[in-house]
Specification:
globular, about 40% helix, single chain, about 10% strand, about 550 residues, alpha/beta
Length: about 550
Amino acid sequence: MPSRLPAVTQPVPAAPSPGTRHDTTALLRGATASTYADTVHAVADDIAARLTSVTQPFSGASRPELQGLVDAVDLDGPPSGTAEALREAAELYARHAIWFHEPTYAAHLNCPVALPAVGAETMLAAINTSVDTYDQSTVATLMERRLVEWTAGRIGFAVDGDAPADGIFTSGGTQSNFQALFLARERARRAGTRLESMRILATTASHFSVAKSALLLGLPDDAVVAVGTDTEGRMSADALGETLVDIERTGDTVIAVVATAGTTDRGRIDPLGPIADLCDAVGTWLHVDAAYGCGLLVSPTRRHLLDGIERARSVTVDFHKSFFQPVSSSALIVRERADLAPVAWHADYLNPEENAEPNQVDKSLQTTRRFDALKLWVTLRALGADGIGAMVDAVCDLTAAVRQDLAGDRDFRLVGTTDLSTVLFRYEPDGLDPAHADALVPQVRRVLFDSGRALVAKTVIDGRPCLKLTLLNPDATLADIRGVLELVRSAAHGLLAGEALADTDEPPCRDVHPRLARAEDGRAEDGRAEDGRAGEGRAEDGPEDAGAEEGAPTAEEGR
């Protein structure tokens, strides 16, 4: 839809007045407060209008189209004024953004956002607090520390006494995992362990940030050792015990075991209690990556799935996944405050060592840092912990219903099970060769993406490519997801029909070769071949997509 931002909310910047060298109306301050209100209201009205009119998660514009739009903007050109600049941004960004609130978005770990958090985002952006030191943030620091304490209590850590829990808000799970492994490394290093003998144990289903963190921490290339899993991709306690013994025999040292509470693909939770038993027995650091599964901390019905998490030494939580917060909003929580000490670094101009103020930079890898905790604070006060937990339960209940549907469908084959809200499946009806079904996975995903009507993900499980639904929208219904699955089915049918017709001169029959139309007509200049083959030769296609999807039906075929 065209931008609904008004034509003029403030004039184009004029030449500076005598005695000044800049536009004095450019910054947010008392004198520009009314312009600020007009500007924010105009943007909010435009986004609200888009929210009510959008009917699919993506416009379907091709990468060459989008690149052309971006390249057409002259960033060194003359100023256009706030109103025009925002209208241009709305046409470029908002029009072609991915809308996570749309129920047919089911690809990655992106959630629709809670309204109270969006209001808080407006507040914190305007005030622009940095919570690195107390003298820049005052009450914001105290509010963040209270939320850290609340989260620690939900995990089951002690929040008072001689060794209370602590933590820090971060940019996301990757940073939280990195900081946890840094703390584990420092603990081992100070005990005399050499870097070259340090080992981290995790499964192949753990987040890629575990291996990346080992690289950034200067550990050996083989520092991350894969622990065996059960048939559902969960860490095997027996395999962990064997691996711990094997590494001890080599003379190396396990500095941390990383358990996952919500694997990215399967949404499975490792057996936290048995893993903690083994870590306690050998005295190694247990880190639980609960970036995905942290929403269970407030679930009225599923909290027991995280039993044992309270025995971890550190825990990653991503509020911008399962707590429906705008990015960024994550935290690292440690069981004992003293464990954060290795992060501290003091500077006389910022956080002198003798200063008694509660400076958060003393335990953060970042210096300047947004007050992202405000979003969670407002959401908790507005909805309550149980209200958030009910939304977590809603997506898990929806997932169970979708899985039941797929289990009775002769065209689809379910892959594995889940503890959370992912659904892995393949289009593999009776009689279709598994290798042929493999080839359909990236093609189907590409057809749906190019149409803009639905977004699903793809991954590889046990050597076989699969389609993946990640359901994080509590307002989505079973009918919505059935609609996505019908698009998958239609795309697969169309691809197979196209293959069958490829060697004949007969025109395709519309009832066996369904089309997926894009939202807007009139876009033929997107770089597709005239013969209707999706994505052939497009720069963004990887080798798998580009080669496998030749012959796929495209958006143009439906117009």
